């Protein structure tokens, strides 16, 4: 969690930033601002999760800053600090979704504990949101699976093979990219591809790259490094190791045999 301390008293803000052991309260990084405008700028420039904000400040006060946060739909929770136990302040703070309201002076431990509660609440909310998204994802996958059952595996395998052959030079060619392109889960795509072709998608890509590499070396028009690039390997070492494993010799040795 990232915390923004907003306080017009610079020394107070910087002392709280330095002296409170924020990592003990679930905070990884702390930013400071000394008025509402600099607070807004910090929020625009950094991912802020929680705002620890003084209410009484020259110009726009802390309530105005929180109002701006809500109007701009920023997902930031707020804990207010104030010297005055004003009912009007408390009422507006609550209406703006303020998570806590601390009267100062207050012990740093109390401030830290208040922030820790908000951080934990945010974590739970985000976890629940992830579960909900996962549920939606699983439902979509179920519907997608029902559609896949109508798919002709042989046709899919041929189409995937054709795409692979056209894109052997693409370093980003992978089962995940192909699955995304064909709207399948990678595991499912591998299953039907292997059933039709006898090898996994990844192994098919390797096989075809190695065959193409051998043909290019045999042509005598390319060096080993150039061939590596043209068959989709950005690092020559990876190409070298795969070529040697597949053909039983290094690219240079293969090229030499071809020349003889």
In short:
This protein is an alpha/beta fold and 260 residues long. 62% of the residues lie in helices and 10% in strands.
Explain what you see:
It is a single chain. With 260 residues, the chain is α/β, with parallel strands linked by helices. It has helices spanning 10-19, 36-45, 62-71, 87-95, 108-148, 153-166, 175-182, 186-197, 201-219, 224-230, 236-247, 251-259, and strands at residues 2-6, 29-33, 50-54, 77-82, 100-103. Strands 2-1-3-4-5 form a five-stranded parallel sheet, with helices on both faces. Strand 1, helix 1 and strand 2 (29-33) form a beta-alpha-beta unit.
Write the layout of secondary structure elements.
Elements lengths: L1 E5 L3 H10 L9 E5 L2 H10 L4 E5 L7 H10 L5 E6 L4 H9 L4 E4 L4 H41 L4 H14 L8 H8 L3 H12 L3 H19 L4 H7 L5 H12 L3 H9 L1
Parallel strand pairs: 1-2, 1-3, 3-4, 4-5
